[in-house]
C-alpha cells in the first residue's frame, strides 16, 4: 500500500463502515420483503387457481347437467315408442338406430365424465392448492425465523468488526502518541548534549552540576518513554492483528450469507412448493387425460357402429320384422276341372307341331329380349355405381377447423368457408338427383324387361321340359288319352 | 294325381283363386305400408338427430362461452398486475406462473374448439341430416312409383291366369258335354243294333225299313257327335295347355316379385341412405376426434410446463428480479489508521508464539466442530430427503374415477372414496409437518455450526497463510518494524 496523500480520519473511517453496514442492513430487510412478496404472490396464484377451478367445476357441472338432460330427453322419447320396445325385445337393432342409441350413450358418458371432472376439481385439485397455500405461508414463516437468526449472527459479526477496529485505532493512536513523546525526549537529549559541548569559559561549577543532573533526567524520561512506546506498539500490533483476523472472518461470514445462506433461505420458502404444485397440476392433467380416453373409447364404439351401417342386414331385419307382408305366397296350383286327370301340358299329335313352333318363337324372342335387357341392366348398374360413388365421397374430414395457430384469433374464420359451401353443395345435389332420375328410368325399363323375360322364360322352360321328355311324355299323354277317349 | 273323392265345383275353384289373389293384394298394400312406415321412421330419426345436434350445439356454445368468460376473467386480472407486465417484458416467467398462463390458454383453446364443434354441428352435420331426410322421402316416392308399376304387372299376370283358367273350364265342360252326347249316341246305336239282332219273325218289312233308316240316322248323329267331341277335346287340351303355361308364368312372376323385385324396391328406398348417414356421422366423429386431438395437444403443452416446474431456475430468476437485494456487498477493506503502513497480520517475535498457539487451538477446535456439524448436516439432508419423498409421492392418478362399466350407474360412487380420503390426508399432512419441524430445527443447528466454522476457518486460514509464509513474513514484519521503530 503506497502512502496516501492524506490519512483518513477516525470519524471518516467509522462513517464509511457505518454506511456499509447500513447498506447491508437495508439489503437484509429488502431480502425479507422480496421473500414475503414472493410468498404473497404464491398465495395469490394459489387463490387464483382455486377460484379458477371452482368456477371451472361449476361450468363442468352445468355442462354435465345439460348433456344429461339432452340424453334423457331423447332416451325418454325413444323409450316411449313401440318400435323401441320392439327393438329392445329383439336386441337386434337396425344399424342407424343402433348408431342413434350409441350417440345418446356417448352424451351420457360425456355427462358422467364431466361430472367426475368437476368432482375431482372440487374434492381433490382445489384441496391441494389450498394445502400448498398453507404450506407456502408456513414455510415462509420458518424461513423468516431462520433469516432472523442468520441476520442476528451477521450483525454480531459486524459489531465485532467495529469493536476490534476501534480498539486498533485506539492502540495505534496511543502507539503514535508514545512514539512522538519518545521522539521529543530524544530531541531534548540531543539539545542537552549539544549544549554541554559548547565552550564553557564562563560557566559556573554550580551550573555544570545542574546541567549534568538535567541530562540524567532526560535520559531517564527517554527510557521510560521507550518502554511506554514498546508496550503501546505491541498492543497496537495485537489490535491490528485482531482487526485483520476479524476482518477476514467478517468477509467470510458476509460471503457465506450472500452466497450460501440466502440460497438456503429461499430453498426453505420453496420447500415442497414446486413438487406439490406439480402433483396438483398432474391430478388435473390425469383427470383431463382420462376424460379424453373415456371420450375416445365412446367415440370408437360409435365409429364401429358407423362402420357397421349396412343396408343388406337392415333389409333382412326389416323383412323379418313384418313376416306377413314379405313372406312369399303359396304357389298357384293347377286346378283340374271336373275330374280332368291330365295336369301337364299335352304335346300329342294335333298340338305338338304348334307347341314346337311356339317353343321356337319363344326361344328366339327370349334371346333378343335378353340381349336388349342385358344392355339396360349394364347401364342401370353403371348409373347405380355413379350414385354410390357420389354418396360415399369422403367429405367428412373437418380437421382444418381445429388448427390452432400461435395467434389464437385465426381459428374462427376458416370453419364456415371450407366445408359445405352452399353453391358447391347445391350443384352436387342437383347433379346427384339428375343421375337418380336417369337411374330410376333405366331401372323401370330393366324391371319391365325382366318381368316379360320371366314370364316367357317360364313358358319356354315348361315347353322345353314337355317337348324334351320325348317318349315318356308321349307315353303319358297316350295313356291318358286312351283312358279318356272311348275308342 | 289320384282321383279326388269329389270334384271341386267351378265356383269353388274361382273362390279359392280369388281369395289367393286377395291375399296377395293385401300383402302388396301391406308392403307399401311397411316401406312408408320405414321411411317415416327414418324421417323421424333424422328429425331427432337434427333436434339432438341443434340442442347439443346450444350446449356446446354455452359451454364455450362460459369457458371463454372464465379465461377472460383471469386473463384480465393477470394483465392488470405489475408483475404480469414485468414478466411479459422479460418473456421469462417463473415456472408456476407459466403453468398458470398455459392453463388459461388451454381453457381458451377448449372454448374455441367447442365453439367450432357447435359450428360444425349447425352448419354441416344438421344440414346433412336434413338432406338425408329429403333424400329418404324422395327415394320412397320413386320406389312407390316403381312398386305401382310392378304391382300392376303382377295383377295383369293374375288376371290372365284367371282368364285362361276360365277358358279351360269352359272348353273342358264343353268337351265333357260333347263326350257324354257322343256316349249317348253310341248307347242308342248299340240299342238299335241289339234290336235288329232280335228274332224277327213278326217284323214287318215296313218296320224293317224304318229300323234301317233309324240305324243310319243314329250312325250319322254319332259321327257328328264324334267330330264335335274331337273338336271340343282339342280345344280343351289347348286351353289346358295355355292354363298350365300361364300358371307356370304366373308362379314365376310371383316368385320373381317376392324374391327379387321386393328386394329391389327396398333397395330403392335405401339408395344412399346408409352411405349418407355414414358420412354425416363421420363428420360428427371427425369433429369430436379433432376436438380431442386439439385438447390433447394443449394438455401436452401444460404437461411439458409441469415437467419444467423447477425450483432452481425459479430461484435464479427470483434473485435476478431483485438485483439490489441479492447482490453481495463490497468486501470490508482493511482501514489503516493514521498512516499505519502495515496491512497484514504481524507475526514477529513478541506475538509469534501466541499466534502459533492460537492457530493450533483453532485447528483442533475446527476439527471437532466440523465432525459435529457434518453429523448435523447428514441428519438434515436425510430429513430433507424424507420430505422430498413425501412431496413427490405419485398420488395424482385419477383414472379409476373414469372407469365405465357396462351398467352406467356405477361410476359416480367411486370418485370421492378412492382419492384424498380426509383421514389419510390429515395423517399424511401431520406426519409431513412433524418432519418439517425436525428438519428446520436441524437446519438451524447446522447453519449455526457452519457460521461458526466459517468465521474460525477464515481466521485459521489467514493465520496459516501468515505463519506459513515463513521468512518472507519474517522479512516483511522486520522491514516494517525497522521503519516504524526509531532505533
TrEMBL record, chains A, B:
SMART domains cross-referenced by the UniProt entry: FCH
Cross-referenced Pfam families: FCH
Source organism (scientific name): Octodon degus (Degu)
Location of the F-BAR domain: 19-314
Full protein name: SLIT-ROBO Rho GTPase-activating protein 1 isoform X3
Coiled-coil ranges (or none): 7-34, 352-379
Transmembrane segments: none
Name of the coding gene: Srgap1
Listed InterPro entries: AH/BAR_dom_sf, F_BAR_dom, FCH_dom, SLIT-ROBO_RhoGAP
Keywords associated with the record: Coiled coil, Phosphoprotein
Amino acid at each position: 500500500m503506497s502512502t496516501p496523500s492524506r490519512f483518513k480520519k477516525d470519524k471518516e473511517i467509522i462513517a464509511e463502515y457505518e454506511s456499509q453496514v447500513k447498506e447491508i442492513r437495508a439489503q437484509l430487510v429488502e431480502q425479507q420483503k422480496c421473500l414475503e412478496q414472493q410468498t404473497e404472490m404464491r398465495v395469490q396464484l394459489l387463490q387464483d387457481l382455486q377460484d379458477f377451478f371452482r368456477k371451472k367445476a361449476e361450468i363442468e357441472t352445468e355442462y354435465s347437467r345439460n348433456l344429461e338432460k339432452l340424453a334423457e330427453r331423447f332416451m325418454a322419447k325413444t323409450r316411449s315408442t313401440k318400435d323401441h320396445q320392439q327393438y329392445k325385445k329383439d336386441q337386434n337393432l337396425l344399424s342407424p338406430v343402433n348408431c342413434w342409441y350409441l350417440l345418446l350413450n356417448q352424451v351420457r358418458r360425456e355427462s358422467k365424465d364431466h361430472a367426475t371432472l368437476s368432482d375431482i376439481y372440487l374434492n381433490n385439485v382445489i384441496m391441494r392448492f389450498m394445502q400448498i397455500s398453507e404450506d407456502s405461508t408456513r414455510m415462509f414463516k420458518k424461513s423468516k425465523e431462520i433469516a432472523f437468526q442468520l441476520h442476528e449472527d451477521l450483525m454480531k459479526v459486524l459489531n465485532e468488526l467495529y469493536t476490534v477496529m476501534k480498539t486498533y485505532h485506539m492502540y495505534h493512536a496511543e502507539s503514535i502518541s508514545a512514539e512522538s513523546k519518545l521522539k521529543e525526549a530524544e530531541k531534548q537529549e540531543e539539545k542537552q548534549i549539544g549544549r554541554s559541548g559548547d565552550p564553557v569559559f564562563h560557566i559556573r561549577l554550580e551550573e555544570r552540576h545542574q546541567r549534568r543532573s538535567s541530562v540524567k533526567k532526560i535520559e531517564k524520561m527517554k527510557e521510560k518513554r521507550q518502554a511506554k512506546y514498546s508496550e503501546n506498539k505491541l498492543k497496537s500490533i495485537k489490535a491490528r492483528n485482531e482487526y485483520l483476523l476479524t476482518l477476514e472472518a467478517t468477509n467470510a461470514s458476509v460471503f457465506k450469507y450472500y452466497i450460501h445462506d440466502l440460497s438456503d433461505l429461499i430453498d426453505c420458502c420453496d420447500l415442497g412448493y414446486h413438487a406439490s404444485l406439480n402433483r396438483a397440476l398432474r391430478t388435473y392433467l390425469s383427470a383431463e387425460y382420462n376424460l379424453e380416453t373415456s371420450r375416445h373409447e365412446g367415440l370408437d364404439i360409435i365409429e364401429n357402429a358407423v362402420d357397421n351401417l349396412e343396408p343388406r342386414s337392415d333389409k333382412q331385419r326389416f323383412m323379418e320384422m313384418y313376416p306377413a307382408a314379405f313372406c312369399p305366397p303359396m304357389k298357384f296350383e293347377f286346378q283340374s276341372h271336373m275330374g280332368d286327370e291330365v295336369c301337364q301340358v299335352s304335346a300329342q299329335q294335333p298340338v305338338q307341331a304348334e307347341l314346337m313352333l311356339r317353343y321356337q318363337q319363344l326361344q328366339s324372342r327370349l334371346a333378343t329380349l335378353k340381349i336388349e335387357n342385358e344392355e339396360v341392366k349394364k347401364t342401370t348398374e353403371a348409373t347405380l355405381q355413379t350414385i354410390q360413388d357420389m354418396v360415399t365421397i369422403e367429405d367428412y374430414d373437418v380437421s382444418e377447423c381445429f388448427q390452432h395457430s400461435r395467434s389464437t384469433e385465426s381459428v374462427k374464420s376458416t370453419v364456415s368457408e371450407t366445408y359445405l359451401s352452399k353453391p358447391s353443395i347445391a350443384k352436387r345435389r342437383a347433379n346427384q338427383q339428375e343421375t337418380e332420375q336417369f337411374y330410376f328410368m333405366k331401372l323401370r325399363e330393366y324391371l319391365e324387361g325382366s318381368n316379360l323375360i320371366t314370364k316367357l322364360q317360364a313358358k319356354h322352360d315348361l315347353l322345353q321340359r314337355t317337348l324334351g321328355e320325348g317318349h315318356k311324355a308321349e307315353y303319358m299323354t297316350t295313356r291318358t288319352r286312351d283312358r279318356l277317349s272311348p275308342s
